[in-house]
Write the structure tokens for this entry.
Amino acid sequence: EIVLTQSPGTLSLSPGERATLSCRASQSVSSYLAWYQQKPGQAPRLLIYDASNRATGIPVRFSGSGSGTDFTLTISSLEPEDFAIYYCQQRSNWPRTFGQGTKVEIK
Amino acid sequence: EVHLLESGGGLGQPGGSLRLSCTASGFTFSDYAMSWVRQAPGKGLEWVSAISGSGGSTSYADSVKGRFTISRDNSRNTLYLQLNSLRVEDTAVYYCAKERAPGIAVAGTLDYWGQGALVTVSS
């Protein structure tokens, strides 16, 4: 099973600041990595797929990069609605696995 | 507009059974692999099971293999998850989710999710 490790666990930032979230895989997943956003009481929402492709309707302030074992989700300028938990997920191998999540909270 | 609606959650006893359903609309159901993902209270996400668009290919997490069965009825646009031999650790919100790309045999990227169905296993 591929283990995804996200860092940091919590990111405390102010609106307008840049957020950089990391996801590291225990073995190469090529570019088969997605990012999801989840707010309390809601289902996850797909943000980025295949490392760097924005999903339909996702604002351009969200971007993804990386390949192999190291990936980054960047939010260029945080909006109030961006404070949430973010998960990475790989589709290279079965079982599909998620990272443990990074919480982006208001400072 | 894509819409996924889960039903069938509730309280189950250890060793008992429950069946979850997910009714889909807004897309050609049979063209897309589907999945179940669960989230224990206050915890992260766990991919439970996936099924191809035809229903001919299924995959399971080790934690549920031999106890849970995924299936689909394309004539009814409905996905199912049969949960048998329930354990306390199966307590979670169960989400039904759609694969992003058509024709993929084993779902890998989930672009639409239902609102979730809570399953509580307790005596």
Summary: The first strand of chain B starts at residue 3 and ends at 7. The interface with chain A takes residues 35, 37, 44-47, 50, 59, 61-62, 95, 97, 100, 106-111, 113-116 of chain B (CB under 8 Å). Chain B has a mean pLDDT of 96. The radius of gyration of chain B is 13 Å.
